[in-house]
Amino acid sequence: MKTINCRGRLLDLSTPKIMAIVNLTPDSFYSESRNASAEAALNRIENALAQGADIIDLGACSTRPGADVPSVGEEWLRMKDVLTTARRNFPDAIISIDTFRSQIARRAVEAGADIINDVSGGQIDEQMFGAIAEMQVPYVLMHMRGTPATMQQFANYQNVTSDVIFELSQKLRQLTDLGVHDVIIDPGFGFAKTVEQNYELFAHLSDFKIFELPLLVGISRKSMIYKLFGTTPEKSLNGTTILNTFALQNGASILRVHDVPEAVEARKIVGILQGYL
C-alpha cells in the first residue's frame, strides 16, 4: 500500500515521508525538543515545514521510562491550542497526534488532526481501536509490551523479530476486523526492548515488508544510539542519521525525527541511489 487517506487527501508514500516530532511535554527525554510554550511549538512547526517535513507529530504525554503521566484533561490542555492554531495557520499540513488515549484521539480528530500515532498499539486504552474504526483516520500501530513505566520488564523474546511481527499481526487482524483501512506499522524501537534487541530488530527491518503496509521508523536520538557510545541524546544526531539511512534502504515509508534537515538529506541521497528521486 503506497497511499493513506488523510481526511480525504491521499498521502503518497511511494517516496518516504519525514515526520517531525513536536513535543508539548515538559519532560521529553531529549531536552532540546521540549517546547516551553504554545508559541514555541508553533514556531517549531513552521520551521519544520519550511525545512521539508511532510507530517507534524504532536505529542503532549511523554512516554519515556519513568515519565509522569498527565491526566486526560492535562494532556488535552497542552494539546488543544497548538493543534487548533496549527490547523488554522497551516491548512495543508498533515498533522499526527501521538497519544495512547482514545479520548484525546477523538478530540484531536474533531479539531482537525489527520493521523493517530499510538505507542501502545491499543493495549493501554481498549477503546482506541473502536475509535479509530469510527473515525476512519490512519493509525500508527506500534509494538510495545506493558506500559511506558513497566515496558522494560517485558523484553523477553524467543526471537525478537518474529515475536514482534507476530504480536503486531494479531493487533492488525483486530483492526482489519473492525474495518480500519489505513494502518502504518511501527516496530517500536526502544519500547520493551534492550539495546541488543533493538539492533537485532533493526537488522531485520526488511522482514516487515511481509505486512505490505507503510513502515514507520522512529529511532531519533534514542537510547539505542547513545547507550552504545556512552553519550547523551544531544550527541546522537550522527547515529540517528546512519540508522535513518539504513531504514530508508530497507523499506521505511516514514522517518519520525527531531532533526528534519538531516533526514531530508538522507532521503535525497538514498532516493537518488535507489532511483525514486
Short description:
Helices cover 40% and strands 16% of the residues.
Task: Report what the structure shows.
An 8-stranded parallel β-sheet has the order 8-7-6-5-4-3-10-9. The protein has a two-stranded antiparallel ribbon with strand order 1-2. It has 9 helices and 10 strands. The model has no long low-confidence stretch (mean pLDDT about 95). A hairpin with a 2-residue loop joins β1 (about 5) and β2. The longest helix has 18 residues, at about 70-90. The protein has one domain: TIM Barrel (Alpha-Beta Barrel), CATH 3.20.20. By secondary structure, it is an alpha/beta fold.
Q: What is the secondary structure topology, with strand pairs?
A:
Layout: E1 3-6, E2 9-12, E3 17-23, H1 38-51, E4 55-59, H2 72-89, E5 94-98, H3 102-110, E6 115-118, H4 128-135, E7 139-142, H5 160-177, E8 183-186, H6 195-203, E9 216-217, H7 223-229, H8 237-249, E10 254-257, H9 260-274
Parallel strand pairs: 3-4, 3-10, 4-5, 5-6, 6-7, 7-8, 9-10
Antiparallel strand pairs: 1-2
